[in-house]
């Protein structure tokens, strides 16, 4: 469980930053011989839909504080048909400054039929001692259509309004949400390495669940549930392909062999939805915790299936879908263990080296304190206030690489005004 997902690359960068801080502390010695690395990191979401109006915010951090004014020029690579625009590509750092931020917007062209990965890169800089540390991928997704309700579903909405005075159209359509994620001290630096609190401003598309009945109103979040799609994608990468253990080819070559066998690539699709959020009008609450099988039974090892009461996110991950298809086709992978060449079927791959998001992104139950530490646990809850126009969720969350306990997540949706029907 106490797996350090902090990559060697990040550690080296922090050492470079700390070296710069030391050199620039009391005496402000700007004569450091280290390269002044330029690091790019997204603040919040790293993905947006073509019709989104909010920007992606990217932080720029210099490893050392510059002695003189310097400039950095950024560019977008792979920006086919200019689906994105970069506000202020030239960043000017005054002497003594080492942080800045740029914003990237969608041009709202509505032309994509599949996601496009655009890469923000450092194009040039005015100080020869500078060097680009990394690049930053931005995912642009096609617009999500708001589903049109069937006549039967419209009758259900009329029934809810007549029975409980609940205008469920307030909950449906494209809703703005704000998601705040607070990491505990044990996960700080493991799940996230720059801040212990992250806030995501985004949108979700919500409709009536196909499982709704006259007595049990339910909604379904068909895109970006709880504002967590980008967060879950980043955590999935940290649990797997960006995990230090997965990248130790010398001592642990099996994960890389698996990724090679399934042709893992940087344009994988990771989409999340969430169904069966049951509204209880008499209490103005929403039930959203359900039993989920997080690990199947394994007859070979004599283990039973693991079921946990968690949020039943439904994941569509292209690499996982491909893994399952290739495993059924008896595709194998090869790697070297010491002096021995090993060949295994994908069906035999250890579960921890597979790419099942449900396995990697769940660890403990959410309805009880699985860590037995009340200081890092809250009871999951969701309530709404149609007069204030808000829908609020609060819950704990953890994953396979959590080392300190639960992360606390709070979400606020901003409902449509009463009598507005976004389904028309």
Distance between the termini: 48 Å
**How many strand units?**
23
The portion of residues assigned to helices is 10-25%
The percent range for strand residues is 35-45%
Oligomeric organization of the protein chains:
single chain
SSE string: HEEEEEEEEEEHEEEHHEEEEEHEEHEEE
Quickly count the helices: 6
Q: What would you call the structural class?
A: alpha+beta
Q: Could you walk me through the main structural features you see in this protein, from its secondary elements to its overall organization?
A:
The model is unreliable at 1-32 and 420-424 (pLDDT under 50). The protein contains six helices and 23 strands. The protein is globular, with a radius of gyration of 24 Å. Strands 11, 12, 13, 14, 15, 18, 21, 22 and 23 form a nine-stranded antiparallel β-sheet that branches. It has a five-stranded mixed β-sheet with strand order 5-7-3-1-9, with helices on one face. A hairpin with a 4-residue loop joins strand 21 and strand 22 (390-397). With 424 residues, it is of the alpha+beta class.
Which features does this protein show?
424 residues, alpha+beta, 9-stranded antiparallel β-sheet, 6 helices, 23 strands
SSE blueprint and pairings:
Elements: H1 8-23, E1 36-43, E2 47-49, E3 56-62, E4 70-77, E5 84-87, E6 90-93, E7 99-106, E8 116-125, E9 130-132, E10 136-141, H2 151-164, E11 173-182, E12 197-208, E13 218-223, H3 229-239, H4 254-261, E14 270-280, E15 285-287, E16 290-295, E17 306-310, E18 313-317, H5 318-328, E19 332-337, E20 340-345, H6 357-360, E21 381-385, E22 390-397, E23 407-414
């Amino acid at each position: 469980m106490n797996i350090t997902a902090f990559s060697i690359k990040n550690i080296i960068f922090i050492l470079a930053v700390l070296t710069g801080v030391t050199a620039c502390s009391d005496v402000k010695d700007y004569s450091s011989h280290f390269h002044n690395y330029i690091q790019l990191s997204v603040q919040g979401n790293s993905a947006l839909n073509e019709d989104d109006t909010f920007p992606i915010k990217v932080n720029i951090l210099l490893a050392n504080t510059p002695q003189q004014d310097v400039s950095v020029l950024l560019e977008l690579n792979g920006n086919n048909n200019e689906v994105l625009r970069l506000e202020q590509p030239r960043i000017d750092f005054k002497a003594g400054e080492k942080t800045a931020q740029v914003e990237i917007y969608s041009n709202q062209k509505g032309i994509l039929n599949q996601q496009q990965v655009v890469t923000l890169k450092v194009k040039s800089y005015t100080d020869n001692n500078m060097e680009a540390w990394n690049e930053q991928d931005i995912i642009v997704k096609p617009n999500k259509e708001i589903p049109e309700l069937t006549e039967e579903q419209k009758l259900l909405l009329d029934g809810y309004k007549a029975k409980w005075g609940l205008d469920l159209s307030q909950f449906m359509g494209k809703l703005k949400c704000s998601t705040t994620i607070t990491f505990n001290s044990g996960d700080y630096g493991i799940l996230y390495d720059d801040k212990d609190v992250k806030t995501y401003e985004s949108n979700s598309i919500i409709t009536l669940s196909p499982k709704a009945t006259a007595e049990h109103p339910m909604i379904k979040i068909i895109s970006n549930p709880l504002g967590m799609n980008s967060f879950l994608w980043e955590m999935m990468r940290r649990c797997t392909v960006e995990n230090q253990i997965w990248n130790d080819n010398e001592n642990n070559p099996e994960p890389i062999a698996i990724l090679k066998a399934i042709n893992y690539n940087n344009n994988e699709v990771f989409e999340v939805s969430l169904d069966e959020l049951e509204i209880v009008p008499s209490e103005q609450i929403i039930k959203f915790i359900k039993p989920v099988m997080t690990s199947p039974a394994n007859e070979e090892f004599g283990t039973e299936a693991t079921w946990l009461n968690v949020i039943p996110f439904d994941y569509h991950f292209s690499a996982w879908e491909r893994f399952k298809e290739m495993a059924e086709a008896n595709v194998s992978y090869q790697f070297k263990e010491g002096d021995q060449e090993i060949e295994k079927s994908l069906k035999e791959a250890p579960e921890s080296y597979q790419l099942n998001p449900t396995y990697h992104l769940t660890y403990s139950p959410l309805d009880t304190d699985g860590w037995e530490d009340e200081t890092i646990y809250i009871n999951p809850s969701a309530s709404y206030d149609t007069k204030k126009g808000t829908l609020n969720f609060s819950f704990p969350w953890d994953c396979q690489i959590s080392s300190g306990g639960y992360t606390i997540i709070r979400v606020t949706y901003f409902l449509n005004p009463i009598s507005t029907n976004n389904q028309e």
